[in-house]
Amino acid sequence: SQTIHQWPATLVQPVGSPLSLECTVEGTSNPNLYWYRQAAGRGLQLLFYSIGIDQISSEVPQNLSASRPQDRQFILSSKKLLLSDSGFYLCAWSLPQVPGGTLHFGNGTRLTVT
Amino acid sequence: RKEVEQDPGPFNVPEGATVAFNCTYSNSASQSFFWYRQDCRKEPKLLMSVYSSGNEDGRFTAQLNRASQYISLLIRDSKLSDSATYLCVVNMGRGSTLGRLYFGRGTQLTVWP
User: Fold this and answer.
1) Which of A42, A77, B52, B64 is deepest in the core (most CB within 10 A)?
2) How do the pLDDT tens digits run along chain B, 113 residues long?
């Protein structure tokens, strides 16, 4: 069966510090991978999605970046965090053969930028 | 206009009530539609897909109206455990852009005894 691991679960970082959130998927090959952010009182915002290694689409201009160095690894990074980067970050995967298929989410990372 | 819009609620209903949520989407070329459920401070989980012909899963019924670009979710005989935020999700991808799933802000439901 497929599983998704996302870490860390919570993170408190000062403004201007770097960020690295990691997500790995097991039990499937070539999944679609996603990073979403949910700010307090707001809906889920699609940040990045990837249909393959080094194939990443960015949905919103911001100081975040994503990388997919391996088939089942997806990393969200920032060189300098802003206060507005605080939120609940969710990694997700879906099967590549099914257009717009079911999203399976990790447990999320709750980031607080101070 | 946002890609996916929902009434945020909150909807507060007694146990046993029937409640309906609506969602509108902006892209007429959208291909697939879903309802997700999110419990407080947890990740969203798929509740059901929405098909053109409408579909039912126990107490839950989903409908799609492509002409009007809206989706609905009907919950019958509400249970306390139905209390959650319900997220409308639309795939705006075209062709090979399989990954463009957009979430509404969610509709909050509280079922009281």
Assistant:
1) B64
2) 678 999 888 999 999 999 999 999 998 888 789 999 999 889 999 999 898 888 999 999 999 999 999 999 999 999 999 999 999 998 876 554 555 778 899 999 999 99
Measured CA to CA, the distance from residue B31 to residue B29 in angstroms comes to 6
A interface residues, B as partner, C-beta within 8 Å: 32, 34, 36, 42-46, 49-51, 57, 59, 88, 90, 94, 96, 99-103, 105-108, 110
Lookup: tokens for A77? 């990074």
From the number of C-beta atoms within 10 Å of its C-beta (0-12, 13-18, 19+), residue A72 rates as buried
Phi and psi of A102, rounded to 5°? -55, 135
Query: Does B96 touch chain A if contact means CB atoms closer than 8 Å?
Result: yes
The per-residue pLDDT for range A69-90, each reduced to its tens digit, is 999 999 999 999 999 999 999 9
